[in-house]
Specification:
Elements lengths: L4 E7 L2 E9 L39 E5 L2 E5 L1 H7 L1 H5 E9 L8 E9 L5 H13 L1 E9 L2 E10 L2 E7 L21 H14 L11 H14 L19 H14 L1
Parallel strand pairs: 1-5
Antiparallel strand pairs: 1-2, 2-6, 3-4, 5-7, 6-9, 7-8, 8-9
Helix pairs in contact: 4-6
Length: 256
């Protein structure tokens, strides 16, 4: 793996030199855009809107439009905005990891200490495991300030970027009633159904089946064959009564 960030992870007066590595990878298939007439690849060019000529990558700069004109930004300007956050993931507080709403999660990065047997790294890892806490921190990655939590996964400290509060939309505009009457017997059966389906979280049980099936179709087409299309089997329910549907679900699960 190739590191994407190098700096330090700090808590209190302790500073741990670390590197960040992406902890996730895409499983989707990579499709090229083609001209349907001769299957030639379509290329996208960076074109100057005035001259209509392609611009070399090393001539491209970032600009912010202000008062109908552009202010050109350099790498040093982004770092100058928050030099400490560009090089340090500073833990500002510790929170219960269960209090972090999943809506805030974005993506995760593994941290690697500069030395294999880093005692401060091991201390923070073990302390977070024992306390059930996660460090809440801010840092700058690719010219963007990110909020993150630092939490243990096995023997690794993981930095997971999370969204800022203002990035989460409020649900008031949704057409959802807050006074729908649910009877006690309906709620009891609903809870029983949840308990019947409850199990320990094991993500290894779930695979990206759609991508696998799509790849089968691609391979079949490459051989001039047609892939077998699975028929959709709709769920059958009798009647529209919610309680009856819940009871049927409970019985079907027991039968399975």
């Amino acid at each position: 793996m190739r590191s994407i960030w190098k700096g330090s992870l700090g808590f209190g007066l302790v500073s741990i030199p670390v590197k960040l590595y992406s902890a996730v990878q895409t499983t989707s298939l990579d499709f090229d855009m083609l001209d349907s007439r001769d299957h030639s690849r379509i290329r996208y060019q960076r074109v100057n809107e005035q001259t209509h000529k392609e611009v070399p990558y090393d001539k491209i700069v970032k600009g912010y439009k202000l008062n109908d004109d552009y202010v050109i930004m350099e790498d040093a300007d982004f770092e100058a905005a928050a030099p400490e956050k560009s090089k340090v993931i500073e833990i500002e507080s510790f929170v219960d990891i269960t209090d972090v709403n999943p809506m805030f999660y974005e993506t995760s990065y593994y941290t690697e200490p500069d030395t294999k047997n880093n005692k401060a790294y091991a201390l923070l890892l073990q302390a977070l495991k024992k306390s059930g806490k996660a460090g809440l921190a801010r840092f700058v990655l690719r010219s963007t300030e990110s909020l993150c939590i630092v939490h243990p996964v096995k023997n690794v400290l993981v930095v997971t970027r999370i969204r800022f509060g203002q990035q989460i939309r409020e649900p008031e505009e949704l057409n959802i009633a807050d006074d729908v009457n649910v009877s006690k017997k309906e709620l009891d059966v609903g809870l029983a159904l949840i308990n019947q389906y409850a199990e320990d979280f094991d993500v290894s049980k779930f695979k990206d089946e759609y991508t696998d099936e799509l790849l089968k179709i691609i391979k079949a087409k490459s051989k001039g064959k047609r892939a077998t299309i699975k028929k959709l089997k709709p769920h059958k329910t009798t009647g529209t009564d919610l309680y009856d549907q819940l009871m049927q679900s409970l019985t079907a699960k027991k039968g399975a």
